[in-house]
Amino acid sequence: MSAPPRVLTVAGSDSGGGAGIQADLKTMLALGVHGMSVLTAVTAQNSLGVQGAWELPVRAVRAQYRSVVDDIGVQAVKTGMLASAELVEAVAELIGATDAPAVVDPVGVSKHGDPLLAASALDSVRTRLLPVATVATPNLDEVAQLTGVRVESEDQLRQAADAVLEYGPRWVLIKGGHLSGDAVDLLTDGRREHWLRAPRHDNRHTHGTGCTLASAIAAQLAKGRSVPEAVAAAKDYVTGAIAAGFALGGGIGPVDHGWALTRGGR
Fold it and tell me: Which residue numbers delimit the Pyridoxamine kinase/Phosphomethylpyrimidine kinase domain (predicted)?
């Protein structure tokens, strides 16, 4: 039997299983691709927040990446928590030399507001990582961190997209989930615009949403879909996962990565 499409996530571990590497691999399994991982950091994390984080040495990240790519190969790469400028620059170099689309989720803070990227790494994200991205997927807080643009209404999503595109990604998906009303995202390459809307579900258990969306986009790109097709399919998947999110622990529970397997459809 032939192997399914292969997707590599380069991200941190979430010990609670709702975000990070764990969310990425669950998403990839649910969407029918083979997920592989490069661990960049370990966090002590649960439904209440991040209690600690420890980044891995650059040489360990490089070794994991080369081990997978040189032997198994990849059809898409996704990045998440990279923690430091040194890791950002190393991962950007590795991705730039890999012939596969890259989905960059410029993770800055956790769902609970805990910092997951050193302030000193922001310039490396702007100048090294975003230029090698096929699709960048910042939320509104990350847009503000990276560009200084603060979005308070749907009309400002274009301004945010233009500001991120200045750093060189081929496409940017500005996630408007923090706005009121429907969950509205803008996907653009500076010429074409795709507005994606979904009803907002009254469910507070949304831990891992950003990781899940970026991984779903990477999975669809690995299947050969165009960027607009991949993002639209990923948006549908993550909307279902949010609707099915469940309580876990004493805080914010995760989205349900397996909803598409247990409730039919992908």
Answer: 14-256
